[in-house]
Amino acid sequence: xxxxxxxxxxxxxxxxxxxxxxxxxxxxxxxxxxxxxxxxxxxxxxxxxxxxxxxxxxxxxxxxxxxxxxxxxxxxxxxxxxxxxxxxxxxxxxxxxxxxxxxxxxxxxxxxxxxxxxxxxxxxxxxxxxxxxxxxxxxxxxxxxxxxxxxxxxxxxxxxxxxxxxxxxxxxxxxxxxxxxxxxxxxxxxxxxxxxxxxxxxxxxxxxxxxxxxxxxxxxxxxxxxxxxxxxxxxxxxxxxxxxxxxxxxxxxxxxxxxxxxxxxxxxxxxxxxxxxxxxxxxxxxxxxxxxxxxxxxxxxxxxxxxxxxxxxxxxxxxxxxxxxxxxxxxxxxxxxxxxxxxxxxxxxxxxxxxxxxxxxxxxxxxxxxxxxxxxxxxxxxxxxxxxxxxxxxxxxxxxxxxxxxxxxxxxxxxxxxxxxxxxxxxxxxxxxxxxxxxxxxxxxxxxxxxxxxxxxxxxxxxxxxxxxxxxxxxxxxxxxxxxxxxxxxxxxxxxxxxxxxxxxxxxxxxxxxxxxxxxxxxxxxxxxxxxxxxxxxxxxxxxxxxxxxxxxxxxxxxxxxxxxxxxxxxxxxxxxxxxxxxxxxxxxxxxxxxxxxxxxxxxxxxxxxxxxxxxxxxxxxxxxxxxxxxxxxxxxxxxxxxxxxxxxxxxxxxxxxxxxxxxxxxxxxxxxxxxxxxxxxxxxxxxxxxxxxxxxxxxxxxxxxxxxxxxxxxxxxxxxxxxxxxxxxxxxxxxxxxxxxxxxxxxxxxxxxxxxxxxxxx
Length: 763
Known about the structure:
- The chain is mainly α and 763 residues long.
- It has 31 helices and 9 strands.
- The protein has helices at 20-38, 47-59, 63-86, 90-114, 116-120, 122-126, 131-144, 150-165, 173-189, 194-221, 224-244, 249-263, 268-273, 279-282, 289-299, 306-330, 335-355, 361-375, 380-396, 402-418, 422-439, 445-459, 461-495, 528-544, 580-588, 597-604, 608-617, 674-683, 688-709, 714-725, 733-745, and strands at residues 558-565, 572-579, 594-596, 626-628, 641-644, 654-656, 711-713, 749-751, 758-761.
- The strands form 3 sheets. The protein has a 3-stranded mixed sheet with strand order 1-2-6. Strands 3-5-4 form a 3-stranded antiparallel sheet.
- Helix 1 (20-38) runs parallel beside helix 3 (63-86) and helix 11 (224-244) packs across helix 15.
- The longest helix has 35 residues, at 461-495.
- It is elongated.
- It starts with 19 loop residues before the first helix and ends with a strand.
């Protein structure tokens, strides 16, 4: 026998269709089950049997009977429900609607489970509404849209929320949440806008009106800072309420926008400008950082409103800056005080930006622009900064640690960055640096080089090349002085003889003409013994460096004079540290005890303005080396007499005779050197030498650009030149245009024939 299993194939059973009578009986069983579910007697039902009955109805093509029957059955129950709910008083309506909705949801979930097969087959084929969604749709049109329910529920929802805003405690937020959740689910079930139509639009409208009235009322009765606190609290309350009520993002976003518009945007200008408590007023008080931060945090919710705060900050900085300029113009503050004021301002407003504005980049930029605005009104800031640096590097940083020096230099560079006229600063800085290096009045070589190094990092090598050349000259000069001293000692040893008069000691700084500020001052007549010393040094120097030319700057330099006061034999001997001009003046009194201004000028050929200044310096009450014949501080005429004061006394052996300020000198003929710098500071004008340099720089830039580009439009050429020169200064378009015209006249450039605004380089 074979071990293989046998398979018996049975014939298919014939399909026995369900007739209409059986179908109706089956539906009646399902209908009774739905009634039981509505009556909360579902525990007695067999869901497996009910599912099979529904399955058979659909399988035997009685899906329409089942679907229509379910729809009618649900409608009948909902009609009974709505009649009951419509009679519920307002005090219990929200609770009753919430309860009815939950019961309906439970019912529909059970019915959906029974009719799951119909959902998967019949409904998809016939494109009918799924059973659960059908139940929600019927609930909406039967219960919610009832004229005794929808208006009352909507009004109760809005009234309850209004009561919360008024500070009244609500019974239970869950009722609000459930009712709003019902509206959302009803709208999603049949793609209706029931939530938006019956709640959201009304809710947003009443919210806008509520906060419009409240904000105006509260702002009229309180301070700006209190208003900010209240507005912030309101925004947080609304955000918390939205979360508690589970409002959709489609409602929460416009709700926040409406509140922000009414509480912030609509009143932003008023909050900023409010007297005594607005942001503009708070900026005047260093202790109000937290209040300003709160205001910024509030305004940040409406980014466009923050511009009001930035504008107020900018206006405040400009106003304080103009006040500093005004004090400087009136003479109430000198140049260093002006820069100290700017640094104090920056430190203060930087703290405000970092704390109150939380270091926002846009605000930092506005602060920078505001400082640039008032500092670049004229050339005053550049000249004042140069004087401030001079004061710090001359005496202010004496004894300071390296860290303190670097910190101060960083502050200076911060102000320097704001300047557009950096070439003006360079001009004044170079003059002051020259004086410090030549007089030896500097806090230290390291500090000087650190300053130049920072300027080089900011503006490049070309900006500091001359400054570095000045340091190099001083180093070479020191070596030269040592070599000359050795040479002079060797000569003195060779010519030493009894009765030989010791020559004048002279220390010379040899400066490269192109590096140092030009001094177009005619040399004065030096004493014979000084001229002899100069000749000896010239011979020594030119022997080592043939082909060079030495030009002696008698307006600079200093001298140590040994002076005897009193009468023999009780002379009082002092060493006077004086300028070269003062030396020339005082040595004249070895020959004659009294001299007039005219006689001194004829003998020394010192420029009149400088001569008057140096004479007055020798006649001050503290250092009265000479007695002035006329009364008053000034010198009235060439006949004013000056007499050597043999009664002069001083506790110090070495006495430095300082120069008086130029403002102390009565105006005479045009002075030189420092006088030009002083005038530029007083007039806040760009120095003539800088103006001349600018003309050359602009022309050089124009030629350089045109040589590379050959042909260029006027506007493009202006933009290119401005960009190239911005590291030194910002030339105006008119200034550049004048230089273009000058180059055209000199045939460096020409206009094209087809367009006069296009330039062409002439090779």
